[in-house]
Amino acid sequence: APKALANAITRTHADKQAWVYFYPTEDQQKTCDGCGEQGMNGDLVIVYDVNRDTSLGDIKTSTGYFVHHFAPSSLSRIPKNVVFVIDQSGSMSGRKMQQTRIALIHILNDLAEDDHFGLITFDSSIFHWKRELVQANKKNLESAKTFARNIQDRGTTDINAAVLEGARMLNAHPREGSASIIILLTDGDPTSGETNLERIQSNVRRDIADKFPLYCLGFGHDVNFEFLEKMSLQNNGVARRIYEDSDADLQLKGFYDEVATPLLTDVTMIYNGGTNLTQTNFSQYYNGSEIVVAGQITDNDIETFTPQVVAISRDRKVTFSDTNATMEYTGTDFDSHVQRVWAYLTVKQLLEKE
């Protein structure tokens, strides 16, 4: 947090529980870096990590239910293929375009040399920096940054055609042992081409077909964030809002950390003796994130319940199955909590697929 807000945060920690309180005064909300006269405008993001015992993760069981947190960390990173899809329409003028350039250059600076990337900008037409993905070497990155600095806002917004072109570029660039990502930077308001939001979402899902995630960065106070968020969730990604009166670099740090380091692809969670499971297949797993699966234990028979995770690490198959994994029975006080996690994930995932 900025120094001006440091004393607005208190943390308390006891045994297995922690509390974070954030109480900025009215004056603090007006005088902090990037705060306007209207006070603060942003998201409160709490970043934390927890101790895990085994590579298989942490499994909590209660009467008839389980929750599995899977977050292995001692794995080598996988090279990425990233396509940036950048809105340069007239509605992106001024501060939004300035922040978009900053965001793009920030992310380009973080690419590793074995990553491959592509850039397209769009208004009612699509403009390619290069027609196909290229290696993130010094020469290509400098050329891409020059391209980014010269993006000018004009015209209307055909999000549908641009995202489909991004998906086509990734589909045309299969690279074994790598993970692919689309990052859309926009204010999220389609005004040309296909403008029906449901049809755009449907087209994007069809062309991405669960092969890679779509991440959306939404710029400006008038961003159609609901549309971007739903489209990201439907394609295994997340959407982030970039606030105009805050430092774009600072806001991007957390977002990019989430997608910077893919560790596994084609993750399959297997539970013999489990039923009514939440989502068990994940296209990618990133360092610093975690996969959570919940379900019911068939006939509440903990003896025959055996979890296993199969995934691809670079270009080899890896299996996580720890016979000594801690299956912690949480006791009756916790029973309803494990059931509620299962219910919450089930409903959340059904809504995302709507």
Summarize the structure.
By secondary structure, this protein is an alpha/beta fold. 29% of the residues lie in helices and 29% in strands. The protein has helices at residues 26-31, 95-109, 138-149, 159-171, 197-208, 225-234, 248-260, 332-352, and strands at residues 9-14, 17-22, 58-62, 65-70, 80-87, 116-122, 126-128, 134-135, 179-186, 214-219, 239-242, 262-272, 274-275, 281-286, 291-297, 306-313, 316-320, 327-329.
Key terms for this structure?
354 residues; alpha/beta; Immunoglobulin-like; Rossmann fold; 3 domains; seven-stranded mixed β-sheet; five-stranded mixed β-sheet
Taking all Cα atoms into account, the compactness measure Rg is 22 Å
Major β-sheet, in short?
7 strands, mixed
Structure class: alpha/beta
Report how far apart the termini are: 36 Å
CATH architecture of the largest domain: 3-Layer(aba) Sandwich
How many domains, as an integer?
3
Order of helices and strands: EEHEEEHEEEHHEHEHEHEEEEEEEH
Strand content: 25-35%
Mean of all residue-level pLDDT scores: 87
Detail the poorly predicted runs: none
Per CATH, what is the topology of the largest domain?
Rossmann fold
Name of the top-level CATH class of the largest domain: Alpha Beta
CATH superfamily of the largest domain: von Willebrand factor, type A domain
Q: Please estimate the helix content.
A: 25-40%
Number of helices: 8
